[in-house]
Write a structure and sequence with these properties.
- The protein has 2 domains: about 80 residues, no CATH class; about 350 residues, Porin (Beta Barrel).
- It is built from 5 helices and 22 strands.
- A 16-stranded antiparallel barrel has the order 3-4-5-6-7-8-9-10-11-14-15-16-19-20-21-22.
- β4 and β5 form a beta hairpin.
- The longest helix is centred in the first third of the chain and has 31 residues.
- The radius of gyration is 34 Å and the shape is elongated.
- The N terminus is likely disordered.
Length: about 475
């Protein structure tokens, strides 16, 4: 109905003014546009009346299939100018339609999406963790230790991805100390080993594969801080180093070998220290409801001439109380270290138990005897809600739990009770101290990537150097809110 009058108007206008067929004036075009606008307004009013009548009719009178399949007609009068450009919503819909047409898929996992190309060759996923802690210490005979503090145990952002079935990469930065700190950053290659299993090789800034909790990420430890085995029997460079790590996996375990220099730094004026580290774990028993875990590891470290200080101040009752440490006292003149340890544990149903022990020998210059430090721990947990412990049989460490009934699905989440005893001995050194801690805790996992933690530790220290010497004990209460994605 709209097109016919408009066509008649055009014919009449051309017939009345032959010259117009060649060069229509601005007034003629404006009159034509006004006429078309009036016709569109009349048509819109008629459509509004028809839609009002349909809305007032009984529901069964409107066939839903017909409405869903009826195409929408867009009427564009000739010569009509584009008066309104697409808005943000229309542009977003267009981009989504283009992405869908390209075959890109999105899968929602632990809090963030995983993007895959249509052919499955390219994958990409954002990563991150937010661990917020509050701790309060009391009962010490030193007022300087009885403090309440807050801190970010981890504040990370990163990404991971892959190309094809073999190439993969990962990068993460941490901002927990209000500074940018590069943590995991590597590229890797993986493939099958026939019927044996598979392997991967990673190169870059690598996280240590050392001890059970030392190989567990800070967002997956059952307590707010790792055991003293993980924090004290460790290379001088810490948990990270730049190098290469091949790993081999089979049905009941894995083995890794790591060769690294220092961690990421800005010092290129001196040689790096060199660290060689290996670990193997084996699950001689592995069922759907239980695992027996056995593990062993060791490292050897040759220190650079610029890294001879071996002083240690190790966490014993809480990470965010700098006055509460077990100390070696000042120790310089180190030439290298050698450390090793064992792991024994496992789980049956919702109950888990893990024991670790380690020894570190620091070589000193000038013919002095080695400095030997030892540490051991026993820890366990029980999931009251019947969930299985988050044991990762591929890596021999803890990971993120699989919560049976998330609170977001109307369930209670996963509730775990934990307990641990740990002991650290630096007394082989004249200035070295000793300490132990007994910790009980509770973890409430809202779902697989959100949790609350609560720890109460009774600690005892006997330092021979520093501001807080002699026997001392007290309690530290800590809480954490953690989100991992």
């Amino acid at each position: 109905m709209t097109v016919f009058p408009t066509a008649c108007a055009v014919v009449a206008l051309v017939a009345a003014t032959p010259a117009l067929a060649q060069t229509p004036s601005q007034d003629d075009l404006a009159a034509l546009v006004r006429q078309q606008a009036a016709e569109i307004a009349a048509l819109k009013a008629r459509l509004d009346r028809l839609e009002g009548a349909q809305a007032a009719a009984p529901a069964e009178a409107v066939p839903p299939v017909a409405l869903a399949s009826a195409p929408q007609q867009v009427i564009t009068p000739p010569f009509a100018p584009q008066l309104v450009s697409p808005g943000p919503a229309e542009r977003d819909i267009g981009r989504a339609r283009d992405a869908n047409a390209s075959g890109v898929t999105t899968e929602w996992g632990a809090g963030l999406p995983v993007f895959r190309s249509a052919d499955g060759v390219f994958t990409y996923k954002p990563r991150g963790r937010i661990l917020t802690d509050v701790s309060s210490t009391f009962g010490s005979r030193y007022a300087g230790r009885n403090i309440t503090t807050t801190g970010m145990r981890a504040l990370r952002l990163g990404l991971e991805g892959g190309v094809g079935t073999h190439f993969f990469y990962q990068f993460e930065s941490d901002f927990s100390e209000n500074e940018v700190d590069i943590v995991t950053a590597f590229i890797g290659w993986r493939n099958r080993l026939g019927k044996i299993g598979d392997y991967d090789v990673r190169a870059g800034h690598l996280f240590n594969d050392r001890s059970f909790e030392g190989s567990t990420g800070s967002d997956s430890t059952p307590f707010m801080e790792r055991t003293v085995v993980a924090t004290a029997i460790i290379p001088q460079r810490g948990f990270y180093g730049i190098g290469i790590m091949p790993r081999v996996f089979w049905k009941s375990g894995h083995a890794s070998l790591t060769v690294t220099g220092d961690r990421v730094d800005g010092n290129q004026a001196n040689s790096d220290s060199r660290t060689v580290l290996g670990r193997v774990h084996w699950n001689p028993i592995k069922t759907d409801r239980g695992v027996l875990h056995l593990g062993a590891w060791g490292f050897d470290e040759a220190l650079a001439s610029s890294a001879t200080a071996l002083t240690r101040n190790t966490v014993i009752g809480g990470r965010f109380n700098g006055a509460l440490r077990v100390s070696t006292g000042a120790l310089t003149g180190g030439t290298g270290t050698t450390g090793y340890g064992v792991e024994v544990g496992g789980y049956v149903g919702p109950l888990w138990l893990m024991g670790e022990a380690g020894r570190r020998e620091a070589r000193l210059d000038g013919g002095r005897p080695d400095f030997v430090s030892t540490a051991w721990s026993v820890s366990g947990g029980w999931f009251l809600t019947g969930d299985l412990p988050p044991y990762n049989p591929r890596l021999g460490s803890f990971g993120q739990p699989r919560v049976l009934k998330s609170i977001f699905d109307g369930g209670p989440g996963a509730i775990e009770l934990t307990a641990r005893y740990e002991d650290l001995d630096y007394t082989n050194l004249l200035t070295g101290g000793r300490g132990w801690a007994a910790t009980v805790g509770a973890n409430w996992y809202l779902n697989s990537f959100i949790r609350f933690q609560f720890n109460v530790a009774h600690w005892n220290t006997d330092n021979r150097a520093g501001a807080y010497t002699g026997p001392d004990d007290g309690q530290t209460v800590g809480t954490r809110i953690a989100v991992t994605f």
